[in-house]
Amino acid sequence: MSEIYTLIEHRQGEIRDISFELLNCGRKLAEKTNSNLTALILGHNTEKLVVKIKSQAHRILVIDSEVFKDFNSESYQLALSDLIKKGNPFITLMGHTAFGMDLCPALATQLEIPFTTDCLNIDVVNNKIMVTRQVYDGKLNAKVAVRDNPSYLFTVRAGCFLAEESDLKTEIANIDTSVTEPDYRKFVEYIEAPTGDVDVTKSDVVVGIGRGIKEQENLAMVEEFADSIGGVVACSRPIVDADWLPKDRQVGSSGKTIKPKLYIAIGISGAFQHVSGMKGAETIIAINKDPNAPIFNEADYGIVDDLFKVLPVLKEKVMELK
Amino acid sequence: MDLIVCIKRVPQTAEADVTIDSTGKDIEKDRLSFDMNESDSYALEEAVILKEKFGGTITVISLGYQDTEDTLRIALAKGADNAIRIKAEDFNELDGYKTAQILKSSISDLDYDLIFTGCIATDDAYSQVGVTLAELLNVPHASLVIYIDASEKRAHVHRELEGGLMEHLDISLPALCTIQTGINEPRYASLIAIRRAAKKEIKVISKKEIENENLLLNTQIEELFIPPKTKEVEFLTGSPGESAGKLAEIIKEKGLI
Ligand SMILES: Cc1cc2nc3c(=O)[nH]c(=O)nc-3n(C[C@H](O)[C@H](O)[C@H](O)COP(=O)(O)OP(=O)(O)OC[C@H]3O[C@@H](n4cnc5c(N)ncnc54)[C@H](O)[C@@H]3O)c2cc1C
Ligand SMILES: Nc1ncnc2c1ncn2[C@@H]1O[C@H](COP(=O)(O)O)[C@@H](O)[C@H]1O
To answer: Which atom of ligand 2 approaches the CA of B61 most closely?
Structure first.
């Protein structure tokens, strides 16, 4: 029987959400291709991790070693290339995360197997593989045909598959390893982001500003508007990259995840890295001059217009209604 | 310290109308403006900062059409010493793996301590080429780098993880880093530097000169399509006064003012 592998991603002792999504994606693929789903756990003190995913796969392969306590793609690659060569899975799935982006391109290259990144969906039709990915700033999707091969590796975008319960009978196998951390790449430590005076995760109303604001000076009008509705100002990544606002105001995959009652995205295109941090908001409003901006796929209400025209009036109207 | 920076010229699509062409597999590019890929300009700046500190040379390399030379000239004006363009015949016959293979062939003969690429090209959005290239060249890598402290033999780098967390790594050189935006503040090229760069020679090599085998294409776009709607947005129309008025009412109805 053929195999589907999924790598369980964990950090600082916790399984990351993407791992449960991958298990669901893996179960779907296993069903479709009549395969077994094997979850791979490389880590240290793995018992706690194994318990959390039990019944989510047909088999869990565990390599428990101090080397895998923290993520070092070079040591992971040494172990995983071995596992994949021996097990010869039809498909191996990993997350399109900081972890997957660092590991998978090298792993696939070493194994000489077809690979592509950031898949929204993976379809198998008559043993032919077709994946869906996003291109051109998320404005278009692409159906991508993958070269025929006995084995493939894909990274999957977070949020495309739901974490779901399952009740599979799970076999657990432990494997020894001789892998040590290579001298050419050593993990030193984690560094936590500094925290500032405003906690954007605590506010009911968040006004997000993006590159559409053009100049740092223009931020003042956004602050004024946020004040008028009792909200705080958050932002997309380019605003932090330009040093216009501190890192703790950034919303998205490499910033904060917020779930306010109201999120107003202004001059933000809606890249998935941004959306993943704010799609949990109860009501989402987007103001953008581009009617095809991906942010409108997430919004409940939208205004297609120049933010510099809308924002001052909106502030006035809000003040009137107060 | 000898540095290599891989640069891609990409269409600027964030604010533009993006339309699918008649083949259904590509976009109409005539009316789009093109520029250096965003993270590549941070990669270039990081190389210039290291060159200012340690001396050495910067070579910029791009696989692209003729107009890619405009982008390479901007890189020369910003501080690169040498520029190489590998002639691309057809971008549709490339994927991340093949691109990395071609870049590798043109780099293997060069001396380098560090290679920089961007962490993602905004057109194909693979986040694949840099790390693949490192594996093909058999050098250590770190992706999504937002801080570098390099010495002659090793480098301390910070990788960006999710949620604002970072990871501190110690890697040996030569190595490859994929650079994340925000690591520095990319400079503008001065007018004098741009004029000077216009006269510099760009080495052009054809793909055939370096392609030693028939490279396989692992992935190929079959069809482009507009992403399906996941949520039905209600557009508020009218003049700014009207649409803003409707919006203010909605916010009030929801009890948020
Ligand atoms: C690994 C990784 C992690 C990332 N993490 C994050 C993250 O955590 N958070 C994040 O935000 N991004 C993140 N990004 C970046 C992300 O991919 C996008 O580049 C970014 O979100 C774009 O920000 P933006 O929407 O402000 O800018 P753009 O994409 O440039 O969009 C600007 C928008 O403003 C609109 N606009 C311009 N002028 C006006 C006007 N006058 N009136 C109205 N609208 C106007 C335009 O139509 C456009 O839609 C990450 C990227 C990577 C590779
Ligand atoms: N055609 C190309 N020429 C030069 N560098 C490239 C090319 N394509 C990709 N790169 C480099 O690889 C990085 C990541 O690209 P990608 O893997 O396609 O997202 C880019 O930021 C560039 O630094």
So the answer is: 4
